[in-house]
Automatic annotation (TrEMBL):
Alphabetized Gene3D superfamilies for the sequence: P-loop containing nucleotide triphosphate hydrolases (3.40.50.300)
Pfam families: NPHP3_N
Domain Nephrocystin 3-like N-terminal: 301-472
Name of this chain's protein: Nephrocystin 3-like N-terminal domain-containing protein
Organism: Bombardia bombarda
Keyword vocabulary terms for this entry: Repeat
Taxonomic lineage of the native organism: Eukaryota, Fungi, Dikarya, Ascomycota, Pezizomycotina
Amino acid sequence: MEPLSALAIAASIVQFVDFGNRLLSRTWDVYKRPDAAAQELTTIAEELSMFSSRVRESFKGLRHDEKQSQPSETESQLSRLCDECDVITSDFQTVLRQIRRRHSGRSAQDKVTRFVLAIMWSDTKIAVMKERLDILRRRVMTAVLFCLWHDSKRTEQWELHFSKQLEHVTSIISRVDEAVGRLSKEPPSLAALQEIAPTSRITGDVITALHGESSEASQIRDELVQHIWRRGWQRHDPMTAPTFSHTHMVDLRLIARTICDGLTFDAIRGREEAVIEPFKKTFEWIFNRNPKQQDETPAWSSFPEWLEGSSTAPYWIAGKPGSGKSTIMKFITGHPSLSRHLSCWAESSDLIAVRYYAWNAGLSMQKSWEGLMRTILFQSLEQRPDLIPLVSPRRWALFQVLKATNRFPPWELWEVQESFQALLTQCWASIKIFLLIDGLDEFDLAPGEVVRRIRDLTETSASSLKVCLASRPWTEFDDAYGENPMLRMDSLTQDDMAVFVEGKFRDNKGYTELMQLYPTQMTQLTIDIVSKAKGVYLWVSIVVNELLEAMTEGRTIADLQATLKSLPSDISDLYDTIWSRIPSHHRADASMMIQVVKVACGTLSWFTLWLAEECQSSKVDVHTLSPEIRYYARKALRRRLATRTRGILELTYCSWTWNDGYAGFSHRTARDWAKQPSVWQLLCSAYKGDPYLTLLHAEMVLMSDKETNLINHSNTSFWHAVTRTLFYASQVRSPAHEGELVTILDAFDEAATQSYRLAQDNWPIYLRLRKPTDHWSSKQDSGGHRLALHNTFLGMAAQFSLLPYIRAKFAPNRSLLTQRATAKSIGLLECAVLGFNYYMAKDLSHQNVSGVPLTIWYSQRLDTVRYLLNQGVKGDQANGHLCVVNLKSQVRQLVLDSAGSEAEYYVQASELLQMGGGLKGVSKSLLNHIRFGKSKGRS
């Protein structure tokens, strides 16, 4: 059936629905005069019959092509809808006849003065009829949509044709709005409503149907995404032009914001905001056009001249750890004259300035090439949203069709690479990009590979890219950039260090007093500090804090000189000295904080660390914590970190996070120091508690905090919190803590349930719990493959191998053993065997603070599987990505698809299942091949 034919039928049905709804309205006057009642009722009956006949006439003669032996699916749907109109008409006419008979023998004075269907129908009956009419309208819109879809798929560029078809339908909106606007404010006549209202309703309802939850709408959206996201898809110019018809004006910034939200990752600005601000006027010299001279030669390459010139060679800033490389890079980024210098290079082209701070101590995206590409795309589209059609043509095409931004699939690496390449190769004619990359030595790539990729960037983008780099002076970087324009930090920062030291000292009253008594010695103290630092800013910062404390205590000049002399110049040895000087009554607290920060998954919010410490000694009721109390809690934590860890940990304020900052190591060198086996053993001996249990308790309290969960209410954030919490629980090993572990997990389940139900109103409908009895675990796979499969918190515990919790729950309630995998639910045994990563959506990748993927010991997982089998838990099915599969086949496939210790785990799990009757199909030869690494062939 042709789309316009279907649209004509739909128009008639919508007119029918519109009139039916008005007939049901209790505020529609039809009795202008009492003696006109009979005539008005007769007119209503005739109008209703006329609408029903019009629907049937619209369909008559538009049936399927005579060459077809069977009507099309759309024709069958419309035929059923016409039949429904007939049934509804009959119901209306029945009640109208009853009303007419009731009043036919009464005098005019006794006649009712308002037509109210409630005379004959109850409120329930009227509500049911309204629902029937609404369903009828939705179904006809879906039928029209499906007709447009199938018609479009007969063309070669069917996504483009479908978009044009929808655009043609939506173009009616402007004409309808104009017509409605010309009508008076009085209720329009029935004829006007017949002419205008149905067309407007059709337009809006077709778009609504496209985003509905019907199987047809879901199929269309899924096919669109699969088609546009296939590797061989090519964009079509009409779909990439950033123009819109007057019927559908769109703010490109809104689309850019949605696309950027997909590109972003946790702590995308974390490292940049963690870098300390330069002290007062330090580093201003970098923008001097004429660098100072050393041995009659410039001490560094002129940075302004490089910014303004046509050179494509990267500018390299080199320096040892802690020398201030990141600080000067941040200084450059925020300097007001940067854009002025770059504009000379950009000339008439638009300028985009982007930056990436690699951080080895952060999450994987903070130190990976993918993280760099995502960050550059994110910042570029924020600044130039009009680049979307060129940079992200797939998402632009999908938006052109769906007219919405909430249906984009998650970004995958290949698409990030594709868009990044497009940014560099297709945008060069209109823009020039200044790229600042800090921490080449912090990437999770070999230095030579980093050099190669940067070379590819500069060669690909020709003269449209200017790159400034910073790193340690490793051989690979020196070989690549040693002859480039450059700055070596180590020998150039003494003047800035002296300014920094004097500025910090000058604010201390103890220093002022000593300066009055011993001006020469105090001046020499500053000189000695700078000299001993050997160009390491971090060392100066730590030492100055030590000396400031001594001055506050009223130490003599001799004490200060002795303290400086005793502090080692090597930064790692300096941390040893700092730890040894922490008072004994503070070491347990300091150790707890350092351990918690080190084992935490990702960056640790200040509030989580504050809760971790508070929960050690008291029960915290977060509902009583007002914003003012939280403000002082943050200040208190900052003071504690300073006094107890002496600068090893610090509090960083951030604009990118809801909690205003996070707690972490002050520098990579501090983290590296804590990771040393001997140091870690020393730290653990000072605090005997379990840092994972401490974090578990804090996360449980945090989940019940309405303030944080309602502000940071994305579904992804919820599942990140769940994964962190249950992973911490899996790492609690001491049997002495099992009782506390069970209590905390029960409280967490209750808090998560409340939090989910509070936040779900802000989420898409498909993520909301439909019934009061539904558990939030049924929404675990937000990728949509297993969404809405029934699960329980016990099932979640099995995924994370929380054997102490499972044992505690089985003991009093053996009926829990019956949770099995079906087409509608996930089984306990399935959860235990496959593990949490199997069920999580792809965009929920989790790593610890070192960027290592979160994994649970395979022996722990096997113990859980063994326990469930010994308890008689059955399960011969599992839920695949799209359907129920055989557990035996699924485990066999995982054996084949895995490698190393993971493959060995699945081999051993298969043996356990085989003994328990769940798996019998893995051959001994295959097991041996996997175990001994001789082969990984498929059988």
